[in-house]
Amino acid sequence: MIPPVSMISQASKYLWWRRYGSWQAEVRKAFKEYRLTRKPCMICGTQNSEAHHADYDKPLDVDFLCQRHHLQFHARLNKEFLQRNRRRYSLAFHNQVLSEFRREYLQPELPL
Hey, where are the domains in the chain? Predict the structure, then answer.
């Protein structure tokens, strides 16, 4: 029996989707039906971007990051999760780390 996705913790939703569903198929279908348009990377503006999901309950609520920044963000998210000794992954925690990540990259360099 397939467990309902609402009964699963946020950290386990990725594994649930990998096994029972496909948010990627939802995103591809939305692109095809013009319900979702690909946007440039929110950090560097590169046109070749990927969809990043903050919440797997909302497969079409995505941010767009290039592959480089997508990997860097997930590495940062994992590092912050471990450093802050979090027991549960929450959407609020994800959004906090994402805003810190964006601020770090979008801050203009100070003159020397």
Answer: 9-106
